[in-house]
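Progress against Task 2.4 (sequence-to-structure conversion) is shown through the following example record, which the project officer requested during the mid-term review.
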Amino acid sequence: MKNVTLALDDDLLREGRKYARQNHTTLNGLIRKMLSESVAGRREGWLSECFEILDALRPNSRGNKWKRGDLYRV
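Structure tokens generated for the chain above:
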């Protein structure tokens, strides 16, 4: 197995380690899994499902922009 050096923002590295710990893995294991799934073309999980749904919708905002406060007006 080969080693690879990555340059990551300090905040991203900290959050990545925290996420890995919460999911009972290492940062190395997390990156390996995510890269493996991406390269293998396997789209698993809810995030991939969300992207597939959005891709199918082909929404058009017609230039309208959302503001954070708009999310609370339902």
